[in-house]
Amino acid sequence: MAALDGVPFVERRSIDRIEVDDAGRSNYNRDSLRSAIRNVVGTTINYFANHVVARFPQYVTIESRLATFKDWPNPAITPLELAEAGFFYSGQSDLVTCFHCANSLLEWIKNDNAWVNHALFSPCCTFIYIMCGVRFIESVTGRNDSVRPAITKVEPANSRYTCKVCLEKEVGCCFYPCDHAVTCIDCTPGVATCPLCRSFVAGVFRLKFID
Fold first, then answer.
1. Domain-by-domain residue ranges, the chain?
2. Nearest-CA neighbor of 49 among 187, 198, 188?
3. Regarding the domain with residue range 152-211, which homologous superfamily does it belong to in the CATH classification?
4. How remote is the C-alpha of 46 from its chain's centroid?
């Protein structure tokens, strides 16, 4: 797996030691890449996440992303794995792009983990933060490879805590600066303004409820 030249969230000046061959493929050492990322984002990634509007809002749902994989050519990783991790298929080679941060990855190989590679190359992607949390991102960029933690979706016991967008799932995020918690983790990446007060969303906190 490789990233296209010009990774959006990791400044190129910090990863100059990652060589790119004549075919445009990145020949990187994973430990060196992690070190370079830490130099940019710090040893500890500070969140709340700066909420950036999804670059490709037409692919905000997993169904819309899956539909782009009609002619997917690479059996090393499944379209479902990639779509769940936020990617849609570009139609070129095995190049996929995150609907939210617009980072593109290609050259997938057997045993690649879409969530891990997404977090490795785009540690500041709001979608990754919302879906996986900061501990997962730090484990990928700072120490050892990790698998995405399982997320248990709990049916909300009170309509007050039901997502105001899908009207089904439990609220999972809080917006800044309005402080409203009105959307689930699946709907939040597609939101640019608060559904309740319509103020612009500048940041987002991931919530964790304790039973």
1. 2-142, 152-211
2. 188
3. Zinc/RING finger domain, C3HC4 (zinc finger) (3.30.40.10)
4. 16
State the pTM of this model: 0.62
Residue pLDDT, tens place only, 97-134: 999 999 999 999 999 999 999 999 998 898 998 888 88
Helix axes 134-142, 114-121, angle to 10 degrees: 80
Determine the topology of domain 2-142 in CATH: Inhibitor Of Apoptosis Protein (2mihbC-IAP-1); Chain A (1.10.1170)
CB 168 within 8 A of CB 204: no
Least confident of 12-21, 36-45, 58-67, 116-125: 12-21
Q: Where residue 48 falls among pLDDT bands split at 50, 70, 90?
A: very low
